[in-house]
């Protein structure tokens, strides 16, 4: 996070130099007005100094240099922030997703075939266009996905309670906690969006509605298609908002360290700030069980 730290330092320095440039501009205007007042007595323009610009002073040049340096660093900061966010939520998708959800429907809107499990239909078993009421079935499908997302967030809460090492600074502790929550929100939204997009492609509601001749059925398929598209967009927006909030939280950490004259933030070797990563590291360090080594004796 050295680049982010440098960016925050440049931002703070830029504020100082801009204030100094503005002060310099006001001084020059005041001086110009004072000189112009004498000229006004002989017909001169007393407002000659109103638009005095400060374009070539050392302070202005410093401000321009800071802006150029910020532009140079900004792309790296954006890339590294994205990498930090993506690496965390992809780890969650790979290692921590709860069991795939099962779906239940009332008999009057359920798919025509019976589920293969007493726990309900799997995602793959649901063919929405075959349901008597595609819209009602889709709403129940989305409700179950929403509950599944909450299960993912609960996994994050459990991991945090067991593996997170809370920083001494309460403000930074809150930021770290929020970043973990945002990471699991990203993972949950990504997982749900994948399911919805896969079903959208599989069900092909828009095309079925186009060729449907029954007016009521056509309307139902069109509405279901719109609802499905809206749900996908909501998950997409959730990902964008959580990613932005995560980036701002990292920025807040860096700016506070600059303000307190601390160095760049460095992650601990044991990933104590990332409970989901620390749990994986601890698991990989565990010695093999007795059963695993029994066959070699």
TrEMBL record:
Residues 28-49 are annotated as: Disordered. It comes from the Eukaryota. Residues 35-49 have a biased composition (Gly residues). This is Toxoplasma gondii family E protein. It comes from Toxoplasma gondii p89. The lineage of its organism: Eukaryota, Sar, Alveolata, Apicomplexa, Conoidasida.
């Amino acid at each position: 996070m050295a680049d982010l730290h440098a960016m925050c330092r440049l931002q703070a320095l830029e504020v100082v130099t801009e204030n100094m440039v503005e002060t310099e501009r006001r001084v020059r205007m005041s001086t110009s007005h004072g000189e112009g007042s004498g000229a006004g007595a002989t017909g001169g323009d007393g407002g000659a100094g109103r638009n005095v610009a400060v374009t070539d002073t050392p302070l202005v040049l410093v401000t321009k240099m800071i802006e150029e340096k910020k532009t140079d660093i900004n792309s790296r900061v954006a890339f590294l922030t994205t990498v930090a966010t993506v690496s965390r939520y992809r780890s969650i998708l790979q290692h921590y997703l709860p069991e795939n959800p099962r779906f239940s429907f009332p008999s009057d809107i359920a798919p025509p075939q019976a589920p293969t499990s007493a726990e309900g239909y799997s995602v793959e078993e649901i063919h929405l266009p075959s349901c008597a009421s595609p819209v009602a079935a889709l709403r129940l499908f989305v409700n179950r996905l929403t509950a599944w997302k909450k299960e993912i967030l609960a996994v994050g809460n459990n991991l945090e309670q067991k593996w997170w090492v809370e920083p001494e600074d309460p403000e930074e502790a809150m930021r770290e906690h929020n970043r973990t929550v945002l990471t699991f929100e990203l993972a949950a939204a990504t997982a749900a969006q994948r399911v919805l997009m896969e079903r959208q492609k599989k069900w092909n509601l828009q095309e079925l509605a186009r060729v449907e001749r029954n007016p009521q059925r056509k309307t139902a398929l069109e509405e279901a298609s719109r609802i499905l598209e809206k749900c996908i967009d909501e998950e997409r927006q959730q990902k964008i908002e959580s990613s932005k909030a995560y980036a701002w939280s990292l920025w807040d950490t860096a700016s506070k360290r600059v303000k307190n004259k601390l160095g760049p933030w460095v992650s601990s070797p044991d990933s104590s700030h990332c409970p989901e990563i620390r749990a994986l590291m601890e698991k990989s360090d565990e010695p093999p069980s007795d059963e695993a080594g029994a066959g070699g004796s």
